[in-house]
Amino acid sequence: MTKRILHVVSNVAHYDDPSHATGLWLSELTHAYDLFAGRGYTQRIVSPKGGASPLEPRALKWPLLDASARAWLADRSRMDLLSNTARPDEIDPAEYDAIYFTGGHAVMWDFPDSEGLQNITRAIWERGGVVSSVCHGYCGLLNVRLAGGELLVKEKRLTGFSSWTEEVLAGVAKYLPYNAQAEMQRRGARYEKAFLPFISHVIADGRLVTGQNPWSAKATARKVAALL
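The line above is the sequence of Putative intracellular protease/amidase; the predicted structure tokens follow.
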């Protein structure tokens, strides 16, 4: 049987200031999706509310817009996937072998407190599946509790976009609702990052796979595939 992957994207289109646009960092999805497609995996995209997933404008400009993301933008069928994402209540976690949380600053607002996403993640984890994230996607893991009540991330080695090193260098730290790295550490996670910012860095702690930034998406997906 083919493996099945559930991708998670955001519904948020802007920061607290509506004039400051954000959304899905497209290449963080496309690199993983394309790699899994090459292995014949079945894939679906879910978001906290279902429906459209806005795109982060900064990720659609040179030099950040790479060949994978450009190919998606030119493919109506692929872009339709992002216009019609599933709601959590439309997803049966038992059908999926792995969940992959994409990033973009948007997810800081709608991933952490989505009970639907938490329930799906817990179910996949507890039946032996892989839980993964890239960049800010780890915000979707902040509040996931297992059946016994303990946080999934407690005592786990993981990574994600670094606060404030990469946030400051990206020029957006002052606009963010919280410090994601600090919140992870407050929950008992063993956060780690690469020595240099903006380079690929992936950590696998058992079935938990996390990538630090957009340049880590492909390596994160490769590790997920290896575990599967």
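Note on the example: The mean pLDDT is 97. The longest strand covers residues 4-8.
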